[in-house]
Amino acid sequence: MRIRLLGPIDVVVDGTPRAVRGLRRKAVLAVLALQHGHIVSVARLVDSVWSDNGHPPVANTLQSHVSHLRQVLGSRTSIVARPPGYLLDVGSGDTDVEEAERLIRQGTRSDDSAVAAGQLRGALALWRGSALEDVAGLAWLEGQAERLNQLRAQAVRALLEVRLDLGEHAELVRDLELLAVEHPLDEQIHGQLMLALYRSGRQADALAVFRRLRSALVGNLGVDPTLALRELEAQMLRHDPGLSPPPAPVTVSRPPLPVPAQLPLEVRGFAGREPELAGLDALLAQANGPTVLVVVLSGSAGVGKTALAVHWARRVASEFPDGQLYVNLRGYDPSGLVTSSADAVRGFLEALGVPPHRIPVGADAQAAQFRSLLAGRRMLVVLDNARDAGQIRPLLPGAPGCLVVVTSRDELAGLVGIEGAHPITLGLLTNDESRQLLAFRLGADRIAAEPRAADEISARCARLPLALVVVAARAATHPLFSLRALAEELGDSRERLDALAGGDLVADVRAVFSWSYRTLTPKAARMFRLLGLHRGPDVSAAAAASLAGLAVREARHLLRELARAHLIVEHLPDRYAFHDLLRAYAAELAEHTDSAEQRDAAIRRVLDHYLHTAYRAAVVLNPHRDPIKLPAPDHATTPEAFTDHHVAIEWFSTEHAVLIAALRQALRHGLDHHAWALAWSMHTYFNRRGRWHDWAVVWQVGVDAATRLADPLARAHAHRGLSWAYDKLSRHEHARVHLLHALELWAEAGDPVGQADVHLDLGRGLAIEGRFADAMHHARHALDLYKEADHPDGLALALNNMGMASVELGDYERGLECCRESLALHQEADNLDGEAGAWDSLGYAYHHLGDHAAAIDGYQHALDLYRDLGDRFEVAATLANLGDSRHSAGDEARAREAWREALSILDDLDHPDADRLRAKLRADGSRA
């Protein structure tokens, strides 16, 4: 299914267009489609669709339109009622707008001109006329139509540039002449026309175009052409060989893809399973066949599926030289925190070297990118603890050469029947295998001395590997205990749990756990129960200390007691995890042993720990950010402290998955202040690390939590935070909607600093779109508000934005003045990050004035500061600008040196700006 908005509004189902009749129905569909996958409130729908009508519709009018649209779309679930409005969900389909945006984004980032041309042509082919042409007259939709038509103009210009790179100058002259007539003051189009004419042997005509443009600019705006265009004229006058058509495309090598090695540590003392291992070895020989080989290891909980999969995967890892991927899908985790396919795919993409900002929006696009990266590679993929086939399918490679091992309690019949997966069912251990496992852990001599007692222990553990491991841990820690005594003790334990027995394997395992649990010291037993309330994938000793209200040293001692009993595993130094059966058992014990007040207090303490620790880390990362108020922590909570930003970044990197789980747990428990403040505290980390998808998820929870609070400032912060994430995901219209929400809330609260912050954000977005006059308006408004609040950090930021806008508008002297004022304020506040930005802006202003020595000096100051701050992306961006100024100053060798260093960093970050810089170096090299 596809909804089409780039022309008349309609719906295409199974290749057949379906008309949407009626202006209001078309408008409702358009508004929902433009925010596909997001809730649109009833108020916004009414304002957008009926803004030209003085009488808003009654409620059932909108409901009637939605009902009709569901029929057109062919599904009642295509438009879902979600408070406070509706959400459009067309499954794996998309809109033509989303497809156009994706193709344009890819085309403008590609360093292969031929590929870029194909993508841009594909985008332009989606327009069937003026965007949203049959809902004219509705103000909000007219604004959207203008945005989409500007998007088309952007694609047209980008395609012209690419075609010039491909040497199609002669074919372009006529189209560019018509565009120059339509846009008599557009310097980019006139520059392209000049280059096309010059390359077609028409130097005089090219220079005449420049003279006409200069006359028009002076007469209408009172300004000269930009420096870049003046340099182009000079190059033509001296017949610069660099203006010749580009040579045949040169393949520029990209950094090789990393070889991931994600397999977890093998369980010590793996025993038995020889038939299953032989079956897996036999299947390995088929891995070179025409399709992807998928193996499903199924069996009951605790039967050893993961142990077998990891043991075999490590044994054959050398057969997969391109690497091994592993993910725990947590399909049966008692906390309900199942790893989604989208999260798993994003984890794999990052392991394969794709930086977060290069991961596309949408689960389907991410899965396609994953399949593309695995094409032609020989890789082993282990998908552990899957819930169902639907969770698995997006994680399957699309080309032969890879082998996938899936473990699940479910037989995954759909995967076997449709994808042709090979099923292997894992049963209980045999008597010999059980004895072998005990011998590995206790020593063969001890088992040989008491074989019947060993067999009795195996029987009472139902020959289940997980239970045997727990019992063996107790036997190993008491080497003087006889196996007979341990078997009898275990038997007594089962008798005391008759109510839970009756042939149920899980009940048998619970009995074994209870036997081991009752051997714990009282404090360790309490720690075990409380860990069942923790919702993250693992827990640090520091967080466990807060959970239990203990000192970290005492908590660490108790955790190690639990690890020795094999009730938890220290899978990383000072970090502990559960088997999901043991987690469920611990939570069950807490439910029956500890009061609701005690459980709630423990959850509150651990959430206090994560919030106050994350907040401290956030302040270290950005000490100039305006603070927020936090709920006071419980007196028994011990938040962690940080010495510098490197330690803070490392903590966030280790804990970010736990923090997301804590955020959701806070929302479920009604701790809304904790939830939105946690989102605030993770903001800087996710921004600097480029984890845009996680950033959006976190702030959406923050918005949900803040909405339940009677605090407009919390809601404003949350909407603004979500706008930043949407901007990074190129969902600019969604970002603007949230910024306007934030602006309204801060205005209601009478907070001038919050309003000013939003005006800065709105201005930055407009500057990206090239709307510099509008950007200047917002920067000035922000400046006035910061003055009103006596906020020097904000004043400095606003002045810097005004300076950049002034430069872009051609008022270079005013730009210099603003940037100098900004620099002085940042220096006075000792804000090194802001100071670096101001120096960079000064360099940009001087560069446009033609004062290349001053520009180089400004960029060098910025570069030194960014290096000290360790901000690699800003170092690269400043090096690129520095190279431009050196090149304009005639120092081509040092310019290329700066560009190459910048390219090395951008390639290491895999940032899209690397493509443009690589093209610049290639073009400069052809002129050298």
TrEMBL record:
Residues forming the OmpR/PhoB-type domain are 1-90
- What domain of life does the native source organism fall in? Bacteria
InterPro entries registered for this protein in UniProt? AfsR-DnrI-RedD_regulator, BTAD, NB-ARC, OmpR/PhoB-type_DNA-bd, P-loop_NTPase, Sig_transdc_resp-reg_C-effctor, TPR-like_helical_dom_sf, TPR_rpt
> What are the DNA-binding region positions?
1-90
Q: Which UniProt keywords apply?
A: DNA-binding, TPR repeat, Transcription, Transcription regulation
One Pfam family assigned to this protein is NB-ARC
| Amino-acid biosynthesis among keywords | no
- Name where the TPR repeats lie: 836-869
Write down the PANTHER family for this protein, in alphabetical order.
TRANSCRIPTIONAL REGULATOR REDD, TRANSCRIPTIONAL REGULATOR REDD-RELATED
State the similarity comment.
Belongs to the AfsR/DnrI/RedD regulatory family.
Protein name stated in the entry: BTAD domain-containing putative transcriptional regulator
